[in-house]
Design goal:
The chain has 292 residues and is an alpha/beta fold. It folds into two domains: 125 residues, Nitrogenase molybdenum iron protein domain (Rossmann fold); 117 residues, Rossmann fold. The strands form two sheets. Strands 5, 6, 7, 8, 9 and 10 form a six-stranded mixed beta sheet that branches. A four-stranded parallel beta sheet has the order 2-1-3-4, with helices on both faces. It is globular, with a radius of gyration of 20 Å. This is Hemin ABC transporter substrate-binding protein.
Length: 292
Amino acid sequence: MYVFNSRRLAGVALLTLSLGLSSAMAQELKPFADTSRLVSIGGSITEIIFALGEEGKLVARDQTALYPEAVMKLPDVGYMRQLAPEGVLSVSPSALLVIEGSGPPEALEVLSHAGVEYQTVPESYSAAGVVEKIRAVGQALGVADKAEALALETEQQFADLAARTDTVTEPKRVLFILSAEGGKIQASGTGTAADGIIALAGGVNAIDEYAGYKALTEEAIIDAAPDVILMMDRGGDHGASDADLKANPAIALTPAGQNDAFYRIEGAYLLGFGPRTAAAAGEVADLLYGAN
């Protein structure tokens, strides 16, 4: 439930301080020599470029770039973690902006030797991380002023969200399920985008014994005792239905199973950690605690 308490202003102040510290410590990117034929790797990077009004520089994207709709008109050079140099080079890029974790490293090395200037934008699943990405993209594209305006707007959105979630006195335990194929539950531990969005929404990750995504035993699901199960909305017949989840005997014994608390949100929006993340976390908070 939401109630006003004395932690509210402290929470907002702490968020503002953390964002300011992140800005000061942010990895400095330098302006590309030529951005006339830019390739962006990472859905959040591409979304930021559109939000800055610099989409005219883009000649290609990777498979994780799904928003805004106009991005789908760009050529797709492959998945961010499995890039093939020939695919990227086929669009004759002048510069390559990649999110941390893209690769493989050998592919990026080949591209560098081929004369393609590339820079890496740091990734962090937090409010400060989103703001840092915006500023980093602005630096690389030579539009720091535009990026600063977007960064400040985004900071305010996160501050407003923090003011809201800081009034939560009984945080909901949230289990994020990545996959339930064959009845095997693959769920998020710590250090993931799912873990980050749960925290921003004022929830608690029901799984904190490991990092990343792993399969859960029935005993682990029962012990986690989630109040809510959160998933990506894969559309159509993809993904587990509510009936499928309730058919799992372990899930059926949890508070989430007993209360049919199964929620789905489109994946790129939920886990993208781009300019829309404060809004996405706000929607999760609505699901957990009711609309503000």
